[in-house]
């Protein structure tokens, strides 16, 4: 705010007219407010230069520019926002001198050594500040002479006893008054009005509503950065749709710093976008539904059952975002791709259809309901969310944005890179997998399941797989080793089953490769890589039409087992497993995975395995039962 160009007369006149125009309920006005309404002026007469000079002599210093200019137009002010009923003029402003006794507690807290400099600078505020509030709802308005800008303005600090936070900061008195004008508008916009009274419409509301419309059009044309400042200001004035449009931009990664807008059942987007998003947020927070207001049938009798159903489906991973129309058809196709791990293809499907998306009303600028869909939310990487925001849609046109790209690496070797499968891990992760040619992922349980007819679980997050299949497991045995395999597509005509949490160490003596059982329709490849023990192990085996073709196992660089005719590029020596050192063994593992990719054209989807949801099932044991004289361990917890 530039005090040298700010037109105080025009600003205060507009504010007064708007306040008077909103006071149709004359019977409820006090005598003083009725007089203000008749005069259509919330201020006093202008202060004479002599009044300002006398005040500065009494105070002992010159007043900051914007407060001085304000006094020249109005020597005091009524109804500054909703909680300050009168602001001081030249005769009422005075040093606070900690008259309220707040300094001791605040100074102790602000003065702590580990606080940032801007927090510590507040020490002494209550003793040094000029108090401008004369009558208020326990709200203090303080001009701080030690927080001065290059333009000579003093910062304003506002604190209320009913707010559990530090004082709000404004760079100048002019900036504070603009904020109070916005507060007045925001409160008026939310106020219930009798049907007999006129709507709250004036020059400011028309200007801000036009800004919201302009911002919405810009956002639909892919220019959300242009829309943000317009919406931020309109939201401060409490204008319809400004907050929810900002929230949608923020949900998709656009810059904004506003609190979340609470959904309301009257919004046409409630059941399809807002309620599912709220349920997903609640689920991700780890909290239950006990305090979830939308499941309260007394408060929301018309939608409480829908809320309960959406919560249950979100928890089970079966909720489906269904926007309808041509875009809805693309969503269905993308979900089918994502549930088998092809998140890149799912994004390409969504990206091609974004222009076909249609909003549900004036408060809608993007299909944010995608973020509530358990299969599609992981597809939308931060870069892809921004690309969605930058894509023209909803009947608007504009240039196509730069493409975010497809983040999944090709092939298998990324599994051997530290931190790729499990963030923060400094060595290659433990995993085992089956790659099967000629079958779809949903056919794997029939080939490898622990029992006939074992079903695929619904798509689950990686940390939910064990809880779903073994919800009350307390006993862990070395007798058998049934893997929990997440499944998906591994390339053209290939499927995979993947397990990153083997329950038993690899045993060359007891291991039974599932490759022959998986290969009845073509080729099957099994890889087991284990690094969590002192001696890393790598196993590879392949079978076709039920017959084992080749296999080898290397433990800490030593070949423990080999059978069949190994392809030249897949021999342990060619891969470098005989080289000394952990780094060399990790490099050999990566080369083995690269060679499998090169020979068979297979690939695993990193994003689906690390952040997405995949179907899963319990496999048959990967080890044989113990023989005569062999022992095994059983551990029971709890």
Question: Can you characterise this structure?
Answer:
The chain has 22 helices and 19 strands. It has 638 residues and is of the alpha+beta class. The protein has a nine-stranded antiparallel sheet. Strands 3-4-6-7-8 form a five-stranded antiparallel sheet. Strand 7 (154-160) and strand 8 (168-170) form a beta hairpin. The chain starts with 7 loop residues before the first helix and ends with a strand. The model has no long low-confidence stretch (mean pLDDT 91).
Distance between the termini: 65 Å
- Helix percentage range: 25-40%
Report the principal-axis shape.
Answer: elongated
Q: Helix/strand-derived class?
A: alpha+beta
> Number of helical segments?
22
Largest sheet: 9 strands, antiparallel
Unreliably modeled segments: none
Rg is 34 Å
Mean pLDDT: 91
Portion in strands: 15-25%
Number of strands: 19
Q: Largest sheet, order of strands side by side?
A: 10-18-12-13-9-14-15-16-17
Write out key terms for the chains shown:
17% strand, 35% helix, 19 strands, elongated, 5-stranded antiparallel sheet
Could you give a quick summary of the protein structure above?
The chain has 638 residues and is of the alpha+beta class. The chain contains 22 helices and 19 strands. The radius of gyration is 34 Å and the shape is elongated.
Task: Please render the helix and strand layout as text.
Blueprint: H1 8-21, H2 31-39, H3 49-59, H4 65-73, E1 77-80, E2 84-87, E3 94-95, H5 103-110, H6 117-120, H7 125-128, E4 130-131, E5 133-136, E6 139-148, E7 154-160, E8 168-170, H8 173-190, H9 203-220, H10 224-236, H11 242-251, H12 270-285, H13 304-316, H14 325-338, H15 343-353, H16 382-389, E9 431-437, H17 444-448, E10 457-460, H18 465-469, E11 475-477, E12 482-491, E13 494-499, H19 515-518, E14 523-530, E15 537-544, E16 547-555, E17 558-564, H20 572-575, H21 582-600, H22 606-610, E18 614-621, E19 634-636
Antiparallel strand pairs: 1-2, 2-5, 3-4, 4-6, 6-7, 7-8, 9-13, 9-14, 10-18, 11-19, 12-13, 12-18, 14-15, 15-16, 16-17
Helix pairs in contact: 9-10, 10-11, 12-13, 14-15
